[in-house]
Amino acid sequence: MPTVLRSGPYRVFFYTGDRHKPPHVHVERDTSKAKFWLEPISLQSSAGFSRAELNTIYRLIEQHQPLLLQHWHDYFDS
């Protein structure tokens, strides 16, 4: 599970088995989890995060989308 970004309490990562899925990231904080597609950015699923916190995470992903996509392609296209 490569971690591609840490910001505040959030760990952003993907699973090595996600190769054949569209680019996306998983986000964890404590026991809360979410999954966001990267193109276009959209929430796929979540558990434990409030709506306000999901909005914060969305903005974080939006801010770092080019970096997250680069990590995805560097890892899976090699």
Care to give the gist of this entry?
With 78 residues, the protein is α+β, with helices and mostly antiparallel strands. It has one helix at residues 51-76; strands at 3-7, 10-13, 24-29, 32-38, 41-47.
Task: State the secondary-structure class.
Answer: alpha+beta
Percent of residues in helices comes to 25-40%
In percent, how much strand structure appears in the residues?
A: 35-45%
Instruction: Please tell me what the overall shape is.
Output: globular
Structurally, the number of domains stands at 1
Ranges with pLDDT <50 over ≥5 residues? none
Q: What's the main sheet like?
A: 5 strands, antiparallel
For the biggest β-sheet, the strand order reads: 1-2-3-4-5
Query: Termini separation (Å)?
Result: 16 Å
Q: Determine the mean pLDDT.
A: 96
* Rg estimate, integer Å: 12 Å
User: What is the element string, with H for helices and E for strands?
Assistant: EEEEEH
Oligomer category: single chain
Treating each run of at least 4 consecutive H or I residues as one helix, how many helices? 1
Q: What is the number of E strands? A: 5
Q: What does the model show?
A:
There is one protein chain. The protein is α+β, with helices and mostly antiparallel strands. The protein has one domain (3-76). Helix content is 33%, strand content 37%. The chain is built from one helix and five strands; from the N terminus they run βββββα. It has a five-stranded antiparallel beta sheet with strand order 1-2-3-4-5. The longest helix has 26 residues, at 51-76.
